[in-house]
Design a protein that fits this description.
binds glycinamide ribonucleotide, 35% helix, eight-stranded mixed β-sheet, alpha/beta, 7 helices, 217 residues
Length: 217
């Protein structure tokens, strides 16, 4: 079995790259078939082209209203028939209808230890709050922003010398290992979304699986 995957992104696409690299390894069951972006110039689309998968740009301003834009995205996705929708730096909120259509098959990665710091600008907020830990969360997407059942987290210790840039670099390095790993669990049929929790190997994850920065590399 392979996992037909469409990656939605808005920016540099380093997480897409990590997924493409993982998919190229012999034992992988990941099958990334397309990247779709709301930004025509997104560097992630160039990565998709280089890897020989479809690169689809659908900027919002090419459509008269949000409804017709999301309608076109939904139609393109249906044509691609993905097993999984993978949000990787996609800076838009998925409408409830899409969350419902792909229920249990949409994943997101968010740069914080959810439920702490949903939304934007997490690095600055972590520093301002004086948090000792920061990190990233892979979770199922539901219509509630950054609040779907969490699956796995990687955490890093915030040092005195850290600034937003150094935190971002360390968190993203964790993401590039964590996200492909979770996607492989999905491709192996080990991961599901239950009513309230994510489920791994048939058991509810009452807490997300936690990896320390040092354990991932
Ligand atoms: C990632 O760090 C991801 O966690 C974050 O955007 C970055 C995209 O980087 N996502 C969010 O902030 C979503 N709220 P990339 O384009 O290089 O993969």
């Amino acid at each position: 079995m392979s996992l037909r995957t469409v990656v939605l992104l808005s920016g540099t696409g380093t997480n897409l790259q990590a997924i493409l690299d993982q998919a190229a390894s012999e034992e992988s069951r990941l099958d990334p078939v397309a990247a779709l972006s709301d930004r025509a110039g997104a560097q992630g689309l160039e990565r998709a082209r280089r890897a020989g998968i479809a690169a689809i740009a659908l900027p919002r301003d090419g459509f008269p209203d949000a409804r017709s834009w999301w309608g076109e995205i939904a139609a393109r996705l249906r044509a691609l028939a993905p097993d999984a929708l993978v949000l990787a730096g996609f800076m838009r909120i998925l409408p409830a209808e899409l969350c419902e259509e792909y229920k249990g098959r949409v994943l997101n990665i968010h740069p914080s230890l959810l439920p702490k710091h949903p939304g934007l600008d997490t690095y600055r907020r972590v520093l301002e709050a004086g948090d000792r830990w920061h990190g990233t969360t892979v979770h199922f997407v539901t219509h509630k922003l950054d609040a779907g059942p969490p699956i796995a987290q990687a955490r890093i210790r915030v040092g005195r010398e850290d600034d937003a840039d150094s935190l971002r670099a360390r968190v993203q390095a964790c993401e590039h290992v964590l996200y492909p790993r979770v996607l492989e669990w999905m491709s192996q049929g080990r991961l599901a979304m239950g009513d309230r929790h994510a489920m791994l190997d048939g058991s509810d994850l009452l807490e997300p699986l936690m990896f320390e920065e040092g354990e991932l590399f």
